[in-house]
Structure prediction request, 229 residues.
Amino acid sequence: EVQLVQSGAEVKKPGESLKISCKGSGYSFTSYWIGWVRQMPGKGLEWMGIIYPGDSDTRYSPSFQGQVTISADKSISTAYLQWSSLKASDTAMYYCARIRVPGWYFDLWGRGTLVTVSS
Amino acid sequence: SSELTQDPAVSVALGQTVRITCQGDSLRSYYASWYQQKPGQAPVLVIYGKNNRPSGIPDRFSGSSSGNTASLTITGAQAEDEADYYCNSRDSSGNHLDWVFGGGTKLTVL
Prediction:
């Protein structure tokens, strides 16, 4: 089955670090871009950045540049989104999604990882 | 970066036709893709490209585009179509790889 499996929900304190994951299966993980999308509580979707696992080429939305780090380990078909110092405003659902090219649309989504940052 | 504007809420009577629109300068250069999101679930792609449906998406969903406006039409809306709908496209401003999502439209099926 073609799917993206995301890591489980996290509860963290402000200032802590965090790395969440997105594991692809059922397709050639290194041949498709993977994107990360944030959805704050009760809000819409925001594109954060993308990575091409084949060569780790990474692009960030200007809104998230410097705030998060996107990486991938192609040997285990997994992409990552990480924070070095979480803020309460990072509380959100984070989705990974596969990107189809040409067209640049998100055709396969993970179920999301809920990150809660609270003191 | 560019913006995509959607009506916050739209309603439709069961079995009737509804059009959800998305406006933005980037749509003059790139097709929109459309995503359906039901409460507590991840988004699902329903339309991409000029007017393409992924496997498993009913043919009552269709897409169109004119100028700076993209539209998602549901012909014969069903109760299960009640959801939030988001448009998305490449961002045509600047020279970097960037995307933009619309703010979303909450569809109510009456």
Notes: The interface with chain A takes residues 1, 30-31, 33, 35, 37, 41-45, 48-49, 54, 86, 88, 90, 96-104 of chain B (CB under 8 Å).
